[in-house]
Amino acid sequence: MKKFSFTINGNNYDVDVLGFEENTAQIEVNGTLYNVEVQKELKMSKTPTLVRAEPPKPSAREARIPKTQSQTSNVAIKAPLPGTIITVLVKPGDKVSMGQKLLTMEAMKMENNVLAEKAGSIRVVNVKPGQTVAQNEILVEIE
User: Fold this and answer.
1) Number of other CB atoms surrounding residue 123 within 10 Å
2) Taking the model in full, what pTM does it have?
3) What proportion of the chain, given as a percentage, has pLDDT over 70?
4) CATH 2.40.50.100 is the classification of domain 75-142
5) Could you tell me whether strands 110-115 and 101-107 are parallel, antiparallel, or unpaired per DSSP bridges?
6) What are the tens digits of pLDDT across the range 27-84?
7) What is the C-alpha separation between 50 and 90, in angstroms, rounded?
8) CA torsion 62→63→66→68, rounded to 10°?
9) So where are the chain's domains?
10) Does residue 53 contact residue 39 with C-beta atoms inside 8 Å?
């Protein structure tokens, strides 16, 4: 049993909470019994709500800045792992399609196919069969 003391409109009340079931409490106020329906308790958040300012809109001058495209459309095909080149299937000037097999290399005791990342023509082949290569070394360039 919990005891509370309330002051309402200048009057003092001694309240005893006798029991509580679901949303009904049985209380005694100054010797008189009451069954009181309890509403949902509102919990106040202790964490403040963050309000973010809107980012500034770009000025008219900034909005007109043209987007530049890269000067070169060449794609460098790099070695995914250190290894040894087994076969080279292309030569400079060959036309290739995206996903076409360019060469085979052995890395970690496995043969790995190196594929074209875009369609185009072979600009440079930097490797030959039997050559060892490091990771991220440029193998072939496609334009």
Assistant:
1) 14
2) 0.49
3) 90
4) yes
5) antiparallel
6) 888 888 888 887 776 666 677 777 888 888 877 777 776 665 555 578 899 999 999 9
7) 59
8) 80
9) 2-37, 75-142
10) no
